[in-house]
Write a structure and sequence with these properties.
Elements lengths: L1 E5 L12 H13 L4 E4 L2 E3 L3 E2 L2 H17 L5 E4 L2 E3 L4 H6 L12 E5 L9 H10 L3 E5 L5 H5 L2 H8 L3 E5 H4 L5 H12 L5 E3 L13 H11 L1 H16 L18 H6 L4
Parallel strand pairs: 1-2, 2-5, 3-6, 6-7, 7-8, 8-9, 9-10
Antiparallel strand pairs: 3-4
Length: 262
């Protein structure tokens, strides 16, 4: 399995605080069956300003440390970028990292409370510059939980969706789990990742979520979410993903009770 979203890099954000913590996370990932991890520290203006060179250097150092400790885990470089106005320009100038440093897919974290108006225009701008947004854990966003139709619109416009493994398992509450299952039903999920921050709580684990997804989608489709699509993203290739399934409009209450009249 490939974990496309992880805060394993030590000392750069709110994830692993040091090399020993990163090693513990790597060990937990390997034990769960994860063979590759994309290290995606936060980029949040004025808080965690992890630019491209900072992340690449940190990944190189962690690779060396894991190899010295006999850890069979392949690392890739990436970044979880908080949406901000200058993002497109920074990406075009190669100041911020795409996933796998492959130049195509951008892991985008939405603002935590409110969303900007006409966000689809921003995504269209990114697409126009050759970047495809991969939305980080939108199932956990309170506004999108109440307005899932927005996510359908963005996916139809070319965005991809990454959900957190723990969301499927109820780690963020019953409501988030139920909403995540609905996203799976409507084929609005393209990647399952751990968003791991530590070795135990918010751990780097995908296997249980993979089993849960397989119950709803089948083994092959579930496997695509943790292997096929992440591999395509890291290599910067065009990903073949299923068309989203529209939500059915509910019939009026009296028709649901009495059926259609003629």
């Amino acid at each position: 399995m490939i974990d496309l979203h992880s805060h394993m890099l030590p000392g750069v954000d709110d994830g692993a605080p040091d090399l020993e913590a990163a090693l513990a996370m790597a060990r937990a990932a390997v034990q769960d069956g994860i063979t590759e991890v994309c290290c995606t520290p936060h980029y949040i203006p004025q808080l965690y300003e992890n630019d491209r060179r900072t992340v690449l250097d940190a990944v190189t150092a962690l690779r060396r440390f894991l190899a010295e400790n006999g850890m069979p885990l392949t690392l890739h470089a990436g970044c979880e970028i908080r949406l901000h106005a200058s993002m497109p320009q920074a990406l075009r100038q190669n100041k911020l990292l795409t996933l796998g440093d492959a130049g195509r897919y951008v892991l985008v974290e939405l603002p935590p409370h409110a969303l900007p108006l006409r966000l689809e225009d921003f995504f269209w701008e990114l697409r126009g510059f050759g970047f495809t947004p991969v939305l980080a854990h939108p199932e956990r966003h309170p506004f999108l939980g109440r307005h899932p139709g927005l996510l359908f619109k963005w996916v139809r416009a070319g965005a991809l969706v990454q959900i957190t493994a723990g969301s499927l398992l109820g780690h963020f509450g019953k409501q988030v789990r139920e909403g995540t299952l609905r996203l799976l039903e409507h084929r609005l999920v393209h990647v399952i990742a751990s968003d791991a921050h530590h070795a135990k709580e918010r751990a780097p684990a995908l296997s249980l979520a993979l089993d849960e997804a397989a119950k709803r989608l089948g083994k092959d489709a579930a496997r695509d979410l943790v292997l096929t699509v992440p591999r395509c993203i890291l290599e910067g290739k065009i990903c073949e993903v299923p068309e989203p399934v529209p939500r059915e409009k509910r019939r009026p209450f009296w028709r649901r009770i009495f059926g259609r009249t003629t």
